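=== Structure Prediction Worksheet ===
Name of assembly: unnamed complex
Input type: mixed (protein and possibly other molecules)
Chain count: three
Listed entries:
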Amino acid sequence: MDNQFTTEIANNLFTINNLWMMIATALVFLMHLGFATLETGLVQSKNTINILFKNSIIPAIGLVTHAIIGFSLMYPAESYLGGIIGFSGFGIGTDAAGVTDSYNIGYTYWTDFLFQGMFAATAATIVSGAVAERIKLSSFLIFSTFFVAIIYPITGMWKWGGGFLDNLGFYDFAGSTLVHSVGGWGALTGVIFLGPRIGKYMKGRIYPIPGHNIPLAVIGVFLLWLGWFGFNGGSVLSADPGLVSLVLVTTSLAASAGAIGAMVTSWSYLKKPDLTMTLNGILAGLVGITAGADLMSPLSSIIIGLIAGVIVVFAVIIFDRIKIDDPVGAISVHLICGIFGTLAVGIFGEKAGLEQLFHQAVGILTIGAFVVSSTSVMWFVIKKTVGIRVSQEEEYIGLDIGEHAMEAYPYFEKVS
Amino acid sequence: MDNQFTTEIANNLFTINNLWMMIATALVFLMHLGFATLETGLVQSKNTINILFKNSIIPAIGLVTHAIIGFSLMYPAESYLGGIIGFSGFGIGTDAAGVTDSYNIGYTYWTDFLFQGMFAATAATIVSGAVAERIKLSSFLIFSTFFVAIIYPITGMWKWGGGFLDNLGFYDFAGSTLVHSVGGWGALTGVIFLGPRIGKYMKGRIYPIPGHNIPLAVIGVFLLWLGWFGFNGGSVLSADPGLVSLVLVTTSLAASAGAIGAMVTSWSYLKKPDLTMTLNGILAGLVGITAGADLMSPLSSIIIGLIAGVIVVFAVIIFDRIKIDDPVGAISVHLICGIFGTLAVGIFGEKAGLEQLFHQAVGILTIGAFVVSSTSVMWFVIKKTVGIRVSQEEEYIGLDIGEHAMEAYPYFEKVS
Amino acid sequence: MDNQFTTEIANNLFTINNLWMMIATALVFLMHLGFATLETGLVQSKNTINILFKNSIIPAIGLVTHAIIGFSLMYPAESYLGGIIGFSGFGIGTDAAGVTDSYNIGYTYWTDFLFQGMFAATAATIVSGAVAERIKLSSFLIFSTFFVAIIYPITGMWKWGGGFLDNLGFYDFAGSTLVHSVGGWGALTGVIFLGPRIGKYMKGRIYPIPGHNIPLAVIGVFLLWLGWFGFNGGSVLSADPGLVSLVLVTTSLAASAGAIGAMVTSWSYLKKPDLTMTLNGILAGLVGITAGADLMSPLSSIIIGLIAGVIVVFAVIIFDRIKIDDPVGAISVHLICGIFGTLAVGIFGEKAGLEQLFHQAVGILTIGAFVVSSTSVMWFVIKKTVGIRVSQEEEYIGLDIGEHAMEAYPYFEKVS
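=== Predicted Assembly ===
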């Protein structure tokens, strides 16, 4: 009887843990709608269908390729070359143990796959916004497919799959580097290969190209914040009450402080309380806390959020000055604040210390080097074969008509 | 002491199961917002208030009528006439056992009622989009009230309430037939009784009438996908880790494959990557997997999704050719893919086999026959009494002004 | 061994309870997006950025101030002056016990803080809509900061923090008074100090100023309904299957009945099925059930919802007649229906009775008196120092340009 109690109690705990992980999966899924609405809101109305199309198909491509190859690359049974690469074969499938706590006490094999698949797809979605309004749809789809299926899981394995960065002591709780900076580097190389939108930088001046539907952007940011409950909270990998609830608190306080930091910065520096900057501040705080959300006190998470909120405002301004044209600020949010958040693990909280800071820098640099070089090769090959950018004429009339022969708002008069 | 442990362990499991079912209920509730935004995005701007009104009031009518009569018709204590009809009396109410696992190990009586009520209302919401832009509001409300309160629970009882189809071996895990095809048949008869919108088919040509706000449609599809986590995942009727997580995987892979199938089909056949078709592909995959989401391997669910994604594109095209005017593609998605998904149980997965395929066909046909005949009577009676269609003039100026004396976007210039 | 089982079983239950409370927290967070989209949809397009800004920054300010002072004011270790005020010191922090069931069997300290912080911020969001389209941003932010950090937690303590109203027998399950009427009183005094929008009341006539994007308003109402699953369901403070599921049923039936009540009332009285009124009916039902959601039968909750749905229509009409200009109907929904819902505890359900009705009236009046007087002082001081209202010119051109130098929809032609 005792033995039966032990089993039943463990089964109950497994069921609770798995339930939370499934809900976290659903929340990370919702981030795709968050990215879709955020990015759509921040582009011009004539490119609405195009960005919606990209962000609608990415989760689909992400999940299917994760089932075929990504999950196997990221969590291989064993890895080679000192933890640089591993592969467990194509496809997914489970034996009976996969749905018990002998697979993992926190989740079933199926939950694991789906949670990780939702994560993988977010990396590609980050790129989508930065390259918006001038990239060819087919080129973007080719890039994204390889990016989500191959590049993201390889670098992910380095830490979360037990690879060499994990052995070195690099820490990245929920992916400031593994997800956000990976997406951010891919976005940066994409923007460099593409060049800026026509009319953005002319005769030494910067011409703002405002977003077309700001309520959509706000919807996106709120959904992303909500999704981060699953993104960070699910990265506990169980429903542990103390740890998950701490993570939700640090995550939400960092988001809040990021909003306040960006509001105050933009109000002081730009003389206006800038909504887009404040929204980016929320995201900056979220990305900034992600690497160490389980390590920080409330106070530290507020400080991290505030700094991230300040950083993102200046990052957006500086990227514009150096003519890196990122319509939605994705590189500032995900790359710059991803780097900051990763370093913050060595500066604040339980693991703070010079040695840890060094480990963090190593992780940032090796992953950065790999993603920059591999995506540059990809963008180069794509540019030389199918081409990377729509024609100048198509850019003028918009990608909605050019790529999709469809309008997002056909009954409304546009400003000519 | 042992006995106390047994009880407490069982209570904990009951609490976990019920928690998941309540969350699944919330997710199915969110599908109503998904339908509202999807259908709104796909109609003309002048009919926005009208469709929002319908989709806002349907859940309300659905829940109240489910409390008064629907729940009792669908899950009667016993049924008569060989399992064709049953009724446990008007109203809901519970004794003390209803909140313990002696009612059901997966949920309380209250959770059961609310989960089922949310399901019931979705059937009516499916009809809403197909008959949009020309149906009289009062007629639609009369139809929907009877549809959700009487017709849906009667056919639902045939399988889920232990009726004759359940005894015959018909299988429908989460409602490809019981929910989606039921809604789809109601939509089909409605469209036939109503006729097409003015200007849709003229002189042998088909004139496309595009949707007015495509970001809304994308929001809708994502919310529906999310809601399906509860729709299919909740249909496990407990938080069983292995089964629920498998269902979420098959559901998401089918949705993903549906998107890819519809994208490729529309890109090849229509020469453009069609966003609306791709969105319908997601829904097609979701409807297609619903009948057998608990029976399929990841590979089978991808195949089912792909096929559904191809089917839905051609279904939309064919319905247009035969002048069945369905502004949102609801009949293609819910009826055609609902039928396909139900048959797929006999073709793929654990229950595949000719005998099962026959059972599936019997279920499809009997339910189809009942819904077509009963809704035809309803539409006929409504047409002959209050009338079914708004005046030609009202259709031109739009139902927002005609039915509600209100505009959805009063500050924006419309294309004249 | 027995002792170990006891502990593990209790730990499992604690984990389940805490999981539900974290999910409820996420749902209440989502209400902020609900308020943001609802209020945005109901204002003019030229004030879109401004209201989005306010509703985006309020949760941030709410959470940070709740961490600094609010949580400590609301749930002090002990209170003074007969339960009128208490304070446990600045900042939050926990010892090891805070993450075990020795803190509370339903949740950790972190979960408690975050759940309560999300609640606190909703009170300020209620004000936001009522004072929209003419309040200075800086003034609103000053008000909101004090309102959410000081006023809300003080009155909240009176009941939920064990203060004098709790001792008196006042009952308010989830905050018809403590949240909704508090927000509503703050909104009412704000509107009185501000005065109506220019052009709203002229020469004895009322000029309707319609909302600019009604789909956004519908999204808001659905998200609020969904969020209420966490607002009321989380107020059980555990995952108790019977009680939480009952609360979800009463909440949803009241919302549904509120919609029907408002639809029928507006259709009969205004001769048109008014969408905005019907949406307000949903919210009215939700606010109305909130004080007694755990005490009501399904039938009682339907009756409460119906009454609230009728009340809200006439409240909106009457406030307009007496020139209380509330662009979104917040005072009617949150104050009037909050009062009604609080009184309903003494009229319907388990606690019905004259004595309880008296307790309810005492709670309403003391809280109303405190909030009206304290917010009046605040509004007065703000008016005399930084000023409360934008210039007439800014009101004409809109607060988006005036306060933020930004447009929400720059590519769309506006009606001039």
